[in-house]
From TrEMBL:
One Pfam family of this chain: DUF6325
InterPro entries, sorted: DUF6325
Protein name, per record: DUF1269 domain-containing family protein
Organism, scientific name: Cellulomonas biazotea
Region (Disordered): 145-166
């Protein structure tokens, strides 16, 4: 991995309830890795006991339906240090655990490489909670269905050469 050919790097923290994660969430993550959409750089699981103390938990100790750790082949487990993990642990509820995934967006590597090659650099990147964006869109659209692309109806008056093709 080097600066010239790498994609943007993000992390996600997923709180996991006592008893483990059920369903297909991690198998969908494995699919993203298998298809080369992302590349895991580090996956560390932290847990908080009933007294609020945190400990690093092995991925194998985490109960994840139908997923083993082979999709992490080549990922480090040392990128996130104790201070990073302690900060994550403060945000999870006692008795729960959290998976912290640091990953490269390999799908964006060609764009990132071209930008760097042409003198540009990424200055900032942020994520917004989906719930906040959905609420804002509902306010802006008055609750209309905005999920389907809206195409204006052809209007000959607006286009002197005739209506736009569909």
């Amino acid at each position: 991995m080097d600066l010239e050919t790498s994609g943007p790097i993000d992390y996600v923290v997923v709180e996991i309830p006592p008893g483990g994660l059920k369903g297909d969430a991690f198998s969908l993550l494995v699919d993203l890795v298998d298809r080369g959409v992302i590349r895991p750089l580090d996956l560390t699981v932290v847990g908080r006991d009933a007294q609020g103390e945190f400990a690093v938990v092995s991925f194998d100790e985490l109960s994840v339906q139908g997923v083993d750790g082979t999709f992490l082949h080549g990922a480090s487990h040392d990128v996130l240090d104790d201070d990073d993990l302690r900060e994550v642990a403060r945000g999870i509820r006692p008795g729960y655990s959290a998976a912290v995934l640091l990953y490269e967006n390999t799908w964006a590597a060609p764009l990132a490489t071209a930008l760097r090659r042409n003198g540009a650099q990424l200055l900032d990147s942020r994520r917004f909670p989906v719930q906040a964006i959905l609420a804002k869109l509902d306010v802006l659209t008055g609750g209309a269905d905005w999920s389907a692309p809206q195409r204006p109806a052809p209007d000959a008056a607006a286009h002197p050469t005739g209506p736009r093709p569909p």
